[in-house]
């Protein structure tokens, strides 16, 4: 019970920072909204819908990918805020308290996942008038995105503790997230890609998560592989982040 109390306290502290600056909720939505309104209409008359079930639109294909992109960029890049706390000595002071190190990580990751849920709900609400249809699998898709948000937040925090510098963290994240995004089929179906590109994308876990979220929101298609891959990825990345938080030397910048 003490562990859950520690997670709750860490979560509440992290979320208070959001309440002090709620504008960050909208700031994190700016890029997805550009894609929604300026890129999405280009797919309306294209060939994206040719393989979709009857009665669905290009928005039913496109918006799930946008939600994955939202999670990717609004979770993995949160390590920059952690570096600021390290530089201010906040994490070093917390490390000598009885609070669980895993709780320090999960409380922050839970805050990040909550923000993604709020932003995702706004994005979906804006997409419905454009032609997005919601199916019964939407709730499961939301849980899958929640697990992905926690996993990627733990990755971002773990990398921040390893690299210990914004100058090192920025190029690493940019160098990883861009190819991962392109190989995940977020914007266009990988069935359009040549065989070598499609086969390469099979090795990207986020491709399977995207396929699962899309299948659940479309109400058609296979999603079990994506669920298993996402859960496995979450276990690996949470473990990685937890190990970094368990190292006291990682929690200070000297």
UniProtKB/TrEMBL annotation:
Domain ABC transmembrane type-2: 23-248
GO biological process annotation, one example: response to antibiotic
InterPro entries, per database record: ABC2_TM (IPR013525), ABC2_TM_bact-type (IPR047817), ABC_2_transport (IPR000412), Nod_factor_ABC_transporter (IPR051784)
Cell membrane as UniProt keyword: yes
UniProt keyword annotation of Cytoplasm present: no
GO cellular component: ATP-binding cassette (ABC) transporter complex
Record key words, sorted: Antibiotic resistance, Cell membrane, Membrane, Transmembrane, Transmembrane helix, Transport
Transmembrane domains' residue ranges: 21-41, 61-83, 113-132, 138-163, 175-197, 223-242
Listed GO MF terms: ABC-type transporter activity
Compartments where located: Cell membrane; Membrane
Membrane topology: Multi-pass membrane protein
PANTHER family in the record: NODULATION PROTEIN J
Similarity remark: Belongs to the ABC-2 integral membrane protein family.
Record's protein name: Transport permease protein
